[in-house]
Specification:
The complex is a heterodimer of chains A (about 350) and B (about 280). With about 350 residues, chain A is mostly helical. Chain A has 13 helices and 2 strands, in the order ββααααααααααααα. In chain A, strand 1 and strand 2 (about 10) form a beta hairpin. Chain A is globular. Chain B has helices at about 50-55, 80-90, 100-105, 110-120, 125-140, 145-150, 160-170, 190-205, 215-220, 250-255, 275-280; strands spanning about 5-15, 25-35, 35-40, 65, 70, 75, 95, 175-180, 210-215, 225-230, 235-240. Chain B is globular and about 55 Å long.
């Protein structure tokens, strides 16, 4: 099982090389699988791309000519090969609605979603993990019941309903936050786009007015999405923590005189993180999905809204491009969590399988 | 021995409330421990581990501890606050658990885990704790303490792990050590080494040791005195060297069930249990 050796000893660094190679291999395979899926969705879906171009009144000759032009008369494997080559060149075709390349559209809208999802994840993790820990250490007591109720409510309530109620309460009635959209119309295009994350761009520009306005728009949708991830993160943290608290090392740590707090928050939580990484990565992925509904409710010009509009307008290239982007983000998240694992779990470090 | 005992236990009871009435895990256990090695033997579920944990105040809720006397030196352990117990655990009573594979935190370097006990009880900062941990690793016969200090629990063998565990528990110089099946997870040859380390430290420091084990041979060879527990109750106490002269039918049954090299038997006698032994 070991790698090549020199005189019985391991080549230094070989473990890392193997690790990287293995990860790259699995990423490539996953990506190919993803392209196959999007390709066949495109063929199976009852939308005729030719009809979308020529319109319903075109003659049969025109229809056949366009069909041949975009290569739909070729055998499926050939079509797939052409599709793959195009995708690898970043060519997802042109969107019918915006008449722009889909890739461009996505690069425009994705930062808005990213900004939303990152803040939501921060809220979810920063609040969800401690809540889960407290629920576990107070198992069966009122704190536990309260936190479980809170998270049950979080993942059993439709996000659009929460969004509407949130808007009604915090925007319409209380006026604590700004309404739908990313920013007030008056502030549009006031700061140069650098990262595409409006709050970050405003900070880079030193424009505090734009920053505050953008943040006021961001905080409600991010909190609602964050609440969803909080619900999941807290529930998983609770169950992981309960598992860790039953371990012998917890008893040993108590036996050497450590405080309950130190045993829970340092010893047990250190082991909980190992399990939480995957959960957090998956949560981030599901935030991108949850964004479709949230962005619709909040008119948030991100990937979710873009996908929704494309779907309702039968804009196939845009839908498939968006699907591909979400898939690529998932792959990226897995990659990142793979890279983070060895940082929190010494057992994975330098391990050769 | 006119010296006051290190630990005095009179009528210790540990009770778990259950659906069908209370479960009495430990019933009226009494003993006192001087600077000696006391063995507690019995089957699984006889209450030996629970006795050890009760002394450290580590019986998980909803378990309840009560005793007519539970005294560590001058300190009354009955109704001692969690804070009070924290100052005692590791500092005056410590506990070595069965399997170092599970009893050490897998994501923390072993050296840090040893140093942590020192920081908690002795103080003096990180550097002092590190030095003390290295010295302690040497004391448990680890030849290369600098290297071992940086290892993670999965990188050390069972025997080394158990010596790390002993180092972690003895670094703050407790008076009493409770060793709960300290060698049961180890190979026979490693068992002897670990016991030698334990014996060395316990004798050298004049500590009291409670060795909890199901292994009669081990206990009779290693300890001065033996308590035999059955169903939460001490059924017999005797000098370890005289264990073979034990009179209680349960102890006799345990002894009879031991295989020996001299007498080859196709079938070992089955242990007979009498519920009456658990009663009055």
């Amino acid at each position: 099982m070991a790698g090549p050796t020199i005189g019985g000893g391991r080549i230094p660094g070989w473990g890392i090389v193997r690790r990287v190679l293995r990860t790259l291999g699995s990423v490539t395979l996953t990506f190919l699988g993803l392209t196959v899926v999007t390709f066949f969705i495109g063929r199976v879906i009852p939308i005729d791309p030719v009809l979308a171009i020529v319109g319903p009144k075109a003659s049969n000759e025109t229809y056949d000519r366009v069909r041949a032009e975009i290569g739909l008369d070729l055998p499926l494997p050939v079509q797939y090969w052409r599709y793959l080559l195009k995708v690898l060149h970043g060519d997802f075709g042109t969107s019918v609605i915006t008449s722009q390349p889909v890739l461009r559209d996505m690069l425009d809208v994705f930062p808005a979603t990213l900004e939303l999802a990152v803040l939501a994840l921060l809220i979810g993790v920063v609040l969800g993990v401690p809540l889960g820990v407290v629920a576990a250490t107070h198992r069966g007591r009122w704190q536990d019941h309260l936190i479980r109720l809170l998270s049950l409510f979080g993942y059993s309530t439709p996000v659009f309903w929460l969004g509407l109620i949130g808007l009604l309460l915090f925007y319409a009635k209380l006026g604590w936050v700004a309404g739908p959209g990313r920013i007030d119309v008056g502030y549009d295009d006031m700061v140069p786009t650098v990262t595409g994350l409006l709050t970050v761009d405003a900070l880079l520009d030193g424009n505090s007015e734009v920053f505050v306005n953008a943040l006021r728009h961001l905080v409600l949708p991010a909190s609602i999405l964050g609440y969803l991830s909080l619900a999941y993160v807290a529930r998983m943290t609770r169950s992981f923590m309960l598992g860790q608290l039953r371990q012998e090392y917890v008893l040993a740590a108590l036996a050497k005189g450590l405080s309950h707090g130190r045993v829970v928050w340092v010893h047990a939580l250190g082991n909980v993180w190992v399990q939480l990484i995957t959960v957090i990565a998956l949560t981030f992925g599901s935030l991108l999905e949850g964004a479709v509904l949230t962005e619709t409710v909040f008119s948030w010009p991100g990937l979710g809204l873009y996908m929704k509009n494309s779907l309702f307008n039968a804009d196939l290239n845009a839908v498939l491009g968006g699907t591909m982007l979400v898939g690529v983000v998932y792959i990226g998240l897995n990659l990142i969590s793979d890279l983070i694992y060895p940082l929190v779990d010494p057992r994975v470090r330098g391990q050769r399988r | 021995m006119t010296e006051a005992p290190l630990l005095r236990v009179r009528n210790l009871r540990v009770t778990y409330p259950g659906e069908q009435g209370d479960v009495h895990a430990v019933r009226d256990v009494s003993f006192s421990l001087g600077r000696e090695r006391l063995g507690i033997v019995g089957e699984s579920g006889s209450g030996k581990s629970t006795t050890g944990r009760a002394i450290m105040g580590l019986v998980p809720p909803p378990g309840r501890i009560s005793a007519d006397e539970l005294r560590l030196g001058e300190t009354d352990l009955r109704g001692l606050s969690e804070r009070g117990f924290r100052e005692i655990r590791g500092r005056r009573v410590a506990m070595v658990l069965q399997d170092p594979k599970y009893a050490l935190n897998p994501v923390m370097r072993v050296g840090r885990q040893i140093a942590e006990t020192h920081r908690m009880h002795v103080g003096g900062g990180t550097r002092a704790a590190r030095l003390a941990a290295l010295t302690m690793l040497e004391a448990v016969n680890i030849r290369d303490p600098e290297r071992v200090y940086r290892l993670y629990p999965h990188e050390v063998s069972g025997g080394m792990g158990q010596r790390v565990m002993i180092a972690m528990m003895l670094i703050a110089k407790p008076e009493v050590l409770i060793a709960d099946e300290p060698t049961s997870a180890l190979d026979a040859t490693v068992q002897t080494q670990v016991l030698a380390v334990l014996d060395d430290l316990v004798r050298g420091r004049g500590m009291g040791l409670i060795l909890i084990s199901h292994n009669l041979h081990l206990v009779s060879a290693f300890c001065d005195r033996v308590l035999v527990m059955y169903a939460g109750r001490v059924v017999e106490t005797c000098a370890a060297g005289r264990l073979h002269e034990a009179t209680h039918p349960y102890t006799r049954g345990l002894l009879a069930a031991l295989p020996t090299l001299e007498h080859r038997r196709a079938v070992l006698p089955q242990l007979r249990r009498d519920p009456a032994w658990a009663g009055e």
